[in-house]
């Protein structure tokens, strides 16, 4: 398995695609997606464009849909929810489709959505991603961070590193595709016992703390909490494997 880490959608190559792409936005889109599917959402449909989300979701029965919109960490007006994974309760989500658009996470997903296999990863479902990759052993795997508006983010890189470390420690034969793989693994090994502290230091973590999202950070820092793998069944639509 040849692994590549790309820090942002902007840094991700545009002239080819991998056999398997893992979109990562630990704070908070891919944590929210994993949680929504874990508690029983029928599917999560992701949009980079909020207006497209509004028009496409209009066609869905009202009682079977939820709209989640986030920009700059805050809820978008007209949506039912923002992007807090803690809002994803089974009472709210069971049997519904979650239509979601976020500042960066849904853009990284869109960037790789034409890959043969697309999934989302976060700290909370790291082991589910590792287990899938160990089982299927795809030739090329891209771990794609979301960053923040084109910039690097610690939390996505440390999650990519946690996946790399999980694969290596559980016996995968890994070929390192780019230097970012080693950098991500090193970041994880440095911080694995203090992930919440790292998230508090990160720029988006600080943005979320200013919005009083302390509990969100705490939740997002839980490694291997849920056994759930969000996998793309059609472009932009993720279901639980
Ligand atoms: C994003 O897509 O940039 C994030 O998920 C933002 C957030 O809601 O924390």
Q: Can you describe what's shown?
A:
By secondary structure, this protein is an alpha/beta fold. Helix content is 38%, strand content 21%. It has 10 helices and 11 strands. Strands 5-4-6-3-11-10 form a 6-stranded mixed sheet. Strands 7-2-8-1-9 form a 5-stranded parallel sheet, sandwiched between helices. A hairpin with a 2-residue loop joins β4 and β5. The radius of gyration is 16 Å and the shape is globular. The chain starts with a strand and ends with a strand. Bound molecules: D-malate.
Helix content: 25-40%
Query: Biggest sheet, strands in spatial order?
Result: 5-4-6-3-11-10
Strand content: 15-25%
By DSSP (H or I, 4+ residues per run), the number of helices equals 10
Oligomeric assembly: single chain
Gap between N and C termini: 21 Å
How would you state the average pLDDT, rounded?
Answer: 97
Instruction: Report the structural category.
Output: alpha/beta
What characterizes the major β-sheet? 6 strands, mixed
Order of helices and strands: EEHEHEEHEHEHEHEHHHHEE
General shape? globular
Bound small molecules, which ones? D-malate
Number of strands: 11
Query: Spans with pLDDT under 50 lasting ≥5 residues?
Result: none
Radius of gyration: 16 Å
Q: What structural keywords apply?
A:
single chain; 241 residues; alpha/beta; six-stranded mixed sheet; five-stranded parallel sheet; 10 helices; globular; binds D-malate
Quick take:
The protein is α/β, with parallel strands linked by helices. It has helices at residues 29-38, 50-58, 90-93, 105-111, 126-136, 154-169, 179-191, 195-201, 203-210, 214-220; strands at 2-6, 20-24, 43-46, 65-71, 74-75, 97-101, 117-121, 140-145, 175-176, 230-234, 237-240.
